Amino acid sequence: MGTTLTNQNSIQKEIKSGLKSGSTCYHSVQNLLSSSFLPKYLKINIYRTIILPVVLYGCETWPLALREESRLRLSEKRALRSIFGPKRDEVPRKWRKLHIEEPNDLYSSPNIVREIKSRRMRWAGNVARMGEIGVYRVLLGKPER
Q1: What is the rounded CA–CA span in Å between residue 29 and residue 42?
Q2: Looking at the domain assignment, is residue 104 inside a domain?
């Protein structure tokens, strides 16, 4: 689970790998997340502590473009839709899938893109406090010395 930095800032492979690992992790706990016996807050805790860290491993170095942001949001929405399950409408008295924005309304934590941006800012602060060693020189664009 390493991170590869390139001079073209191409992270499609990194994100694809993270989403694939997250999907594998999701499928390993899918029985828990689709269970009607577990409360929704517990399912969300499982998602936040097991699946999300696997997807976001190394995200501090990802320069996100709109295409990558939409891929990450889509995968998060899929997972949240399965966690929250179908919704029963009172007027027609029928079960239906959640609409695309409904999981975001039910999920109180920030979305995956905001989480990535927050982690990037925290990482940049840590690097800035390092001083003239290691990663700080790479961040400034002066790796040789």
Answers
A1: 12
A2: yes
